[in-house]
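Structural prep section.
Before we set up the soaks we want a predicted structure of the protein with adenosine monophosphate in place, mainly to decide which crystallisation condition to try first. Input record follows.
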Amino acid sequence: MIVILLGAPGSGKGTQSQLLVSKFGFKHLATGDIFRAEMSRGTELGKRAEGYVKSGKLVPDEIVIEMVAGKIDGPGPYLLDGFPRTVDQAQGLDRILKRSGSEVALVVYLTLPGAEAVKRMTSRRICKTCAEVYNEVSRPPKAAGVCDKCGGQVIQREDDSEATAKKRLMVFEDQTHPLVAYYKGEQIMKEIDSNRAPEAVSQELFVLIESVKAAR
Ligand code: AMP
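Run finished without errors. Recording the tokens verbatim:
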């Protein structure tokens, strides 16, 4: 079973993924987390992605599709967070899944006004080691700069600066938003208003996923 979280940067995909993984045991595939980990290890893939990630541009489709193809290697269930981000990637995913005999069960579009997305991105903090998501205002770590979960260093992402956050939002509108129409056509997309407390959003998500599981 594959569930996709779709939404602007800052719409809560990472936060909701954390909650969904602990509730349903999804294998979490967050392409942004993977690129950041590869970059900090200085791998070949990290070097190829770095310029794009730091400047808020999308990493080219062929690189992302190849990377994801190497990670989907069993029945899952998988939670895709931040992938696909273009229609070409969605078609690439369809090809990957066809080979493994699985399919996308649900796409959840987390909606959020652009101004709120920028506010959330610029106040977001993440753990450099385990990628746990924090927020400077609404969910700071218990000890400043130290991850509650693993003790790693909590930092601001370079691409969460205001200028790059605004650019990423434009990239979302241009290149990722067309996926809403793509998945609406396939009738597997549901929208959830993300302009609320994370718990309210996750409640709705839990119900949705339970109903998809029950129907399978
Ligand atoms: P995220 O952590 O999802 O906000 O992603 C951070 C950055 O990683 C993005 O701004 C892109 O540069 C890159 N990235 C992550 N996922 C993708 C994807 N599916 N396609 C292209 N670039 C991606």
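Observations: The chain is about 50% helix and 15% strand.
Flagged for discussion at group meeting.
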